[in-house]
Design goal:
Shape: globular
Strand content: 25-35%
Largest sheet: 8 strands, antiparallel
Helix content: 25-40%
Structural class: alpha+beta
Radius of gyration: 17 Å
Distance between the termini: 24 Å
Number of domains: 1
Order of helices and strands: EHEEEEEEEHHEHEHHH
CATH class: Alpha Beta
CATH topology: oxygen-dependent coproporphyrinogen oxidase
Number of strands: 10
Number of helices: 7
Length: about 220
């Protein structure tokens, strides 16, 4: 599942610092890989994959540049002992204006999962930052897992195809958008559900430096 970013328009691969791009803990058969792309003039996409014999975690974010009226797109999947645990997708507009075209494509796909309701047992920190459009599912079998995977691939594909429809914000809104983006990133950095796991696996100092980079 640790693939690239698909059909991002005008994609440019970014150089990830060597100490973050790949790290391995051989005694635990644990690997971490981080990739980053520049999505045209609209923003940056980052992907984090952690793999071990009984663990697979995929965490991706698209962060728009402050001048653009485009949402944050977050996708996450957690698989433990070959059993899917959590699938999360969220499209967060940080400004009062929303790009209807991008949002409608997402909502159409989200509707196909209406029979799989959001799990009410969400972490408290996540409830504070989720948008009204989030998908938070705990699949109970591989059939549900397959549906979620297909939905997420479609969400990513539709998002990248819709991104060129993003519009520029007014000058008066750009600074506020920038501040909201920084708050969102900081909130996820300090509340990351994998924070303790990263610290235990790779050390506290490395984890702090890495998250500062990932959510820059």
């Amino acid at each position: 599942m640790c693939n690239g970013c698909g059909a991002i328009p005008n994609v440019q691969i970014l150089n990830v610092p060597e100490r973050y791009a790949y790290i391995e803990v051989s005694q635990k058969s644990l690997q971490l890989q981080c990739r980053a792309w520049r999505a045209g003039r609209w923003g940056t996409y980052r992907s984090l994959c952690i793999q071990a014999p009984k663990i697979e975690i995929i965490n991706t974010f698209f962060f728009p540049d402050p001048p653009w009226q485009a949402p944050i797109l977050a996708l996450q999947a957690v698989i433990l002992t070959n059993q899917p645990q959590i699938f999360i997708a969220d499209m967060s507009f940080l400004t009062k204006k929303s790009n209807v075209y991008i949002l409608n494509n997402y909502q159409n796909i989200r509707t196909t999962l209406n029979d799989l309701p959001n799990d009410p047992q969400m972490p408290e920190w996540y409830q504070q930052c989720r948008s009204p459009h989030d998908i938070f599912r705990r699949p109970v079998n591989w059939e549900e897992t397959q549906r979620l995977c297909e939905a997420y691939l479609n969400i990513a594909k539709q998002f990248w195809q819709s991104l060129p429809q993003a519009t520029l914000l007014d000058e008066t809104d750009i600074q506020q958008h920038h501040q909201d983006l920084q708050y969102y990133k900081h909130f996820h950095k300090v509340n990351s559900s994998g924070l303790k796991f990263l610290q235990q696996s790779f050390g506290i100092d490395w984890t702090e430096d890495f998250l500062n980079y990932f959510y820059a």
